[in-house]
Amino acid sequence: MELTFTDALIFFILVIGNVIFGASFIRKNKTSEQFTTGAGRIPGWAVGMSIFATFVSSISFLGLPGKAYSSDWNAFVFSLSIPAASYAAVKFFIPLYREIGSVSAYYYLELRFGAWARIYASACYILTQLMRTGAILLLLALPVNALFGWEVKTIIIITGLAVILYSMLGGIQAVIWTDTIQGLILIAGALVCALFLMFSMPEGPGQLFRIAAASDKFSLGSFGTSLRDSTFWVVLFYGLFINLQNYGIDQNYIQRYMAAGSNKAAKSSAIFGSLLYIPVSALFFFIGTSLFAYYTARPELLPAHLQQPGTGDSVFPWFIASGLPAGMTGLLIAAIFSAGMSTVSTSLNSTATIVLTDYYKRIFNGKAGEKESMLVLRIASTLTGITGVIIALLLVGVESVLDAWWALASIFSGGMLGLFLLGYISRKARKTDAVLGVIAGVIVIAWMSLSPLFFTEGKLLEFRSPFHANLTIVFGTTVIFLTGFILSHLLSKKSKTVKKKT
After folding, report:
1. How confident is the model at residue 402 (pLDDT cuts 50, 70, 90)?
2. pLDDT digits (tens, 9 = 90+) for 178-213
3. For residues 282 and 278, what is the distance between their CA atoms, to the nearest angstrom?
4. CA distances from 272 to 95, 356, 365 (A)
5. N or C: which end of the chain has fewer CB within 10 A?
6. Of 101, 123, 117, nearest in space to 430 by CA
7. How confident is the model at residue 485 (pLDDT cuts 50, 70, 90)?
8. Cα separation of 445 and 241, whole Å?
9. What whole-number distance in Å separates Cα of residue 301 and Cα of residue 313?
């Protein structure tokens, strides 16, 4: 379809303006501390809005409606686990990190178990961010493809290059302030879409709910005990573990906690940013359900190729491009695009920070000056962006980007949350306990991740993981923690017994 001149103008002005605004912070990034934490002078409310926007990104704005359109509200259960995770962050993790004073989320692991633990966790984090960057870049390309007809892979490459430039210049201050602006625009845009869909039904808003209810589109999933399917409980436990990881040990969030001006500001930002996501994510799911009802009532408005299975992620971009009034389309697409760019920039910034603090300064030059540190940060941002582009290109054609991202995040997290919990909860746990726990956890993660791919026939089927892919992080984390915890207590008792005998 053809985009109106007004929409195209609004789109390009806002996107280019967002890049220029982010790049303008280059003047405030003369030191590595300014680049990574804004020197700890950013207001708590802005940090909280940035935490919210990081959660939203294009994965939520496009992936959640796509998921609700294709199935139901089962994935919304993920959001219901957020309060418990944010409480843990406020109660335990934020005071810990701000007391330690390191910008690296993984410095604490080195204090507890040695350098290997820090390297292991940071490597898992980098892998997770690379996959996240690829997923977001792909989702950013879908609405632009619907609007302009440009080839998806071309859009991914161009967007990736723009974000690399943006992240190298703007630093964390650019990320947080652009997140704040775009988060507000995204909420307003989502509300407008939901209202427009409701009142565009041929028989009024009531028809939307009748069609959705008849197809069981509001279902939160089965409450059965199956661990093979995406039941309510599987998604809830997955969400609890992933969100504990997000708010407790994810470098993206730790940098924001450190960017806040005080402990109180850091805690309030975590609460505000996390709880705001719950109603907004419900709004996204409602949009997906509304799209299902809208195109069920008016099937002639949906092209034949989007009526095929596996096209759910593309329906909302099509509606934005074809169903909204002139001007609103360009505004909404620009908001999604800019917010996605900000989120990718966050991943690039946090990954570069880890490369500098956990690798370069530890291995190559612990006394690196500001000029050298800034060079490392910018090179690392560039390489991370290029790798993310490659991953996005490989993800083109997957049935659900949200499912792919959840599965990959579960795998590449490496169960590092278990290592953190072991170090924090068990004071008796030492290096040997942690090493053995990680080995056991990695074996479980490898089995759950790889056996469905390779054990596909014959007797090998007996050894295939019978569990849902989202449970990988749940089991991996649990095995690491329990193995280390049990061994620490057994070895402690054995040591006491030996001492008594001697």
Report:
1. low
2. 888 878 888 888 888 899 999 999 999 999 999 999
3. 6
4. 17, 30, 39
5. C
6. 117
7. very high
8. 14
9. 17
Provide the sign of the torsion angle of the four alpha carbons 149, 151, 156, 161, taken in this order: negative
pLDDT in tens, 218-233: 999 999 989 988 899 9
pLDDT above 70 covers a percentage of the chain that reads 92
Q: Distance between CA 179 and CA 51 in Å, rounded?
A: 8
C-alpha distances (whole Å) from 175 to each of 37, 72, 127, 338 are 11, 33, 21, 11
Average pLDDT, the chain: 85
CB 174 within 8 A of CB 346: no
Question: Measuring CA to CA, how many Å separate 240 from each of 108, 248, 253, 364, 473?
Answer: 22, 11, 16, 37, 10
What Rg do the C-alpha atoms of the chain give, in angstroms? 23
Query: Look-up: residue for tokens 């997923």?
Result: 135
pLDDT at 7: 83
Q: Are 327 and 7 in contact (CB under 8 A)?
A: yes
Q: What is the DSSP string of 390-455?
A: HHHHHHTT-S-HHHHHHHHHHHHTTTHHHHHHHHHH-TT--HHHHHHHHHHHHHHHHHHHHHHHH-
Distance CA 63, CA 281 (A): 11
Which pLDDT does position 405 carry in this prediction? 63
DSSP run (H or E) holding 314: helix 312-323
SS3 call for 290: helix
Q: Residue 39 region, left (φ>0) first, then alpha (ψ -120 to 50), else beta?
A: left
Strand partners, 260: 42
Size of the chain in residues: 502
Distance CA 53, CA 55 (A): 5
Q: What's the pLDDT score for residue 38?
A: 75
pLDDT digits (tens, 9 = 90+) for 102-138: 888 899 999 999 999 999 889 888 988 888 888 888 8
Of 108, 377, 115, nearest in space to 248 by CA: 108
CA end-to-end distance (rounded Å), the chain: 84
pLDDT tier for residue 57 given thresholds of 50, 70 and 90: low
DSSP-derived secondary structure letter, 260 = B
- Residue 24, classified by CB atoms within 10 Å of its CB into exposed (0-12), middle (13-18) or buried (19+), is middle
481: its two tokens: 């923690």
